[in-house]
């Protein structure tokens, strides 16, 4: 999204590898990007190339991936964007493995991009 270009540039300067996907813009101004399968594929293709993964999502579609990464000691953290609205499947993970779950909203001061 063009309005986020400064953030993308900063992340790339910090050696993050960004993968851009097409998005849909709706008439009401909201956007939708469908990247679930792409994320799972990328995590598994790159599996030998990283020590630990940080997954940012509240979507229960990633439960199996998160569970697998945990079982292989490859999950560092699950960052959930909205602590009031996320999948019940991930709430189960939260109950069982609290150490893996953080909420982006509680980390805002550490994570927010300041121009």
In words, what does this structure look like?
- By secondary structure, the protein is α/β, with parallel strands linked by helices.
- Strands 3-4-5 form a three-stranded parallel β-sheet, with helices on one face. Strands 1-2 form a two-stranded antiparallel sheet.
- The chain contains five helices and five strands.
- The chain has a domain at 35-111.
- The chain has helices at residues 5-13, 36-45, 63-71, 88-96, 108-111; strands spanning 24-25, 31-32, 53-56, 75-80, 101-103.
- The two termini are 17 Å apart.
- The protein is globular.
- Helix 4 links the parallel strand 4 (75-80) and strand 5 (101-103).
- The mean pLDDT is 85.
Provide keyphrases for this structure.
single chain, 115 residues, alpha/beta, three-stranded parallel beta sheet, two-stranded antiparallel ribbon, 5 helices, 5 strands
Sequence-ordered SSE layout with sheet pairings:
Blueprint lengths: L4 H9 L10 E2 L5 E2 L3 H10 L7 E4 L6 H9 L3 E6 L7 H9 L4 E3 L4 H4 L4
Parallel strand pairs: 3-4, 4-5
Antiparallel strand pairs: 1-2
In short:
This protein is of the alpha/beta class. The protein has helices at 5-13, 36-45, 63-71, 88-96, 108-111; strands spanning 24-25, 31-32, 53-56, 75-80, 101-103.
For the termini, the CA-CA separation is 17 Å
- What ranges have pLDDT less than 50 throughout 5 or more consecutive residues? none
The tally of strands reads 5
Helical percent range?
25-40%
Principal-axis shape equals: globular
């Amino acid at each position: 999204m063009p309005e986020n270009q400064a953030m993308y540039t900063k992340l790339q300067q910090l050696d993050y590898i960004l993968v851009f996907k097409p998005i849909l813009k709706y008439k009401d101004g909201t956007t939708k990007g469908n990247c679930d399968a792409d994320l799972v594929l990328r995590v598994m293709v790159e599996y030998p190339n990283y020590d630990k993964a940080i997954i940012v999502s509240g979507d229960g579609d990633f439960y199996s991936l998160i569970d697998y990464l945990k079982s292989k000691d490859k999950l560092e953290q699950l960052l959930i964007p909205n602590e009031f609205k996320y999948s019940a499947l991930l709430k189960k993970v939260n109950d069982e493995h609290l150490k893996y779950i953080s909420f982006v909203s509680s980390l805002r001061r550490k994570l927010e991009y300041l121009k």
